[in-house]
Amino acid sequence: MTIPIAGPRGRAPALGLTLLLLACGADAPAEGGGAQEATAAVELSEPISASGLSIALPAAWNRLEPRSAMRMLEAQIPGSGGPGEISAYYFGPGGGGGAAANVERWKSQVVLEPGAPDPTTQSRESGGVRRTWIELEGTVKASTIGSFPTTDLHDGALFGAVIEAPGGPWYLRAVGPGATMREQRQAFLAMLDSARPEG
After folding, report:
1. 60: which DSSP letter?
2. Which long-range contacts (C-beta less than 8 Å, at least 24 apart) are formed by 144-148?
3. Three-class SS state of 16
4. Residue 128 pLDDT > 70, yes or no?
5. Where are the alpha helices (DSSP H) in the chain?
6. How do beta strands 153-164 and 53-55 pair?
7. Do the bridges between strand 84-90 and strand 122-126 make them parallel or antiparallel, or are there none, so unpaired?
8. What are the structural domains, with CATH classification, of the chain?
9. Per-residue pLDDT at 25
10. CA separation (Å) from 122 to 30, 105, 152, 176, 198?
11. Do residues 147 and 49 touch, judged by C-beta distance below 8 A?
């Protein structure tokens, strides 16, 4: 499955185009702006079922066996800066603290470069599914719960997302070297667009 989406700096249009192609129902505009740019293609694997969510990982990512019962799926993210990892979590209907609390928690896990602008939370809703995400770059602090990274990751990036829909929410945390995560940003967004609650 290949999904055309906008280039690496087109934040809202990137999601707009994918959702027009993927989602049924009316779309609400994304929060945050971005200029329309040329489209690229992201190839996704066949959707998988995980804790009541159907989601398609980017085809280039390598699915891993979850290392904790808390994680509904894990995958390795390839890239020129070295591998990154994504973990997805599900704590039951209404569990996990919600979008705002998790965005603040993800912010606390990254030390931004001096003078860097404050990161902006973005969101998109379609077909009864709301996706809220944040992109953070800087030094990603070592995880205290066995997640990646196990030591401070300088020049790193963290993409965190919450998928809200009946039966949810579901939480996704992707971390890796900055170069890798910038390369894989569009794949991450295409994956978010593919997410649907089952049933």
Report:
1. T
2. 146/67, 146/68, 147/85, 147/87, 147/173, 147/175, 148/84, 148/85, 148/87, 148/175, 148/176
3. helix
4. yes
5. 11-22, 98-108, 178-183, 185-194
6. unpaired
7. unpaired
8. 2-197 (3.40.1000.10)
9. 34
10. 7, 16, 26, 20, 24
11. no
The structure tokens listed for 171 are 């939480």
Q: How far apart are CA 24 and CA 181, in angstroms?
A: 29
6: β partners:
39
β-bridge partners, 5: 40
How many other CB atoms are found less than 10 A from the CB of residue 80? 9
Structure tokens at 16: 């707009």
Position 189 scores a pLDDT of 96
Give the span between the Cα atoms of 126 and 66, in whole angstroms.
29
For 48-81, how does the pLDDT look when each residue is reduced to its tens digit (9 = 90+)?
999 999 999 999 999 999 988 889 999 999 999 9
Q: Sign of the C-alpha dihedral, residues 197, 190, 46, 27? A: positive
pTM of the model: 0.80
DSSP category for residue 29: P
Rounded to whole angstroms, the Cα distance separating 132 from 178 reads 21
Residue the block writes with tokens 């295409």: 190
Amino acid at 115: G
In terms of C-beta density within 10 A (0-12 exposed, 13-18 middle, 19 or more buried), how is residue 91 classed? middle
